[in-house]
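Wed. Picked up where I left off yesterday with Phospho-2-dehydro-3-deoxyheptonate aldolase. The coffee machine is broken again, so keeping this brief.
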Amino acid sequence: MQQLDNPAHDREVGHADATLDATRTDDTRIRAVRPLISPALLQDEMPVSEGELQLVEGTRQAIGRVLRGSDDRLVVVVGPCSIHDHDQAMDYARLLKKAADALREDLIVVMRVYFEKPRTTVGWKGYINDPQLDGSFRMNEGLRLARRLLLDVTALGLPAGTEFLDLLSPQYIADLIAWGAIGARTTESQSHRQLASGLSCPVGFKNGTDGSIKIAADAVLAARSGHAFMGMTKMGAAAIFETRGNEDCHLILRGGKAPNYDAASIAAACQALKASGVHEQVMVDLSHGNSSKQYERQIEVGRDVSTQIAGGERRICGVMIESHLQPGRQDHVEGTPKSALKPGVSLTDACLGWAQTEPLLHELAAAVRQRRSLSA
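Structure written out below (tokens, as returned):
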């Protein structure tokens, strides 16, 4: 029987010997390739208003002043561990906006709007990756939903912060982000340090999952420098990017094998930053390793941090709080409808409820006022 095709050659293009068939060695584990909307097209569909741009720009500048010591307010990044529902996120945003306005003299409140979740093994990767929670991976829809939520939160007058996990997604949403984070699992990644060097917002690097401060201090130093790397433009084309470096980077203490929010840990972290030539400013994550994964302990951690601030500690520039409408967390079983989920409860890390969060915000603001009075 005559062989229809020689597996050593691709006969679809011209002469039989014109093109080597590379399909035996290329994309052998790719199941499908689907079209992706370009950042430019998404931003054209969902443009940002002048007022929203002013809010993002003004908040970035204010956080920069805090990092440089010329603004004595505390940056508070607070909100759900991850976003999975637009309406519930907006209900939370409206509550947070009222508190942010009441405490604006003491706190710069940024809503935590996290769309991408790093997984230790496997699991739901977030609102952009799988917005329907059903394994359909409708990422174009996820990008649209993420941008719509950011526009709606910002339109309230509330700035948003997020973790930058995927290296391409910032092109779709970074114009609406007032503050960004690089997580503990990616702080050591050269690609994420390069990304941070070109981002227009302040960026916090978390200490390593084992508690290593040196990893994050090195990341801050690296992100302050200029880099050249490959990426995707707003028009969706491959390009080489050259960055100027980001001076508004800082350390986030999130605990590790042991918590690192206490006064001795703050002093040790600042000493490590000083030794690396990095400005001695830290943000404290009240959750994760610092709360030993017990969400209600965020209140205890927050109280300790407030005491340090009230006592005159000026090297603490901010805190992070995982908070949602209702306390705790829930599991989502793939295949069950979204309507089966309990409203306002996290799908990922357990969160404080709003009723627990609001008093904590007031406690932090009171600590800032006390610290301010010491130098009056």
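Quick read: The chain is about 35% helix and 15% strand.
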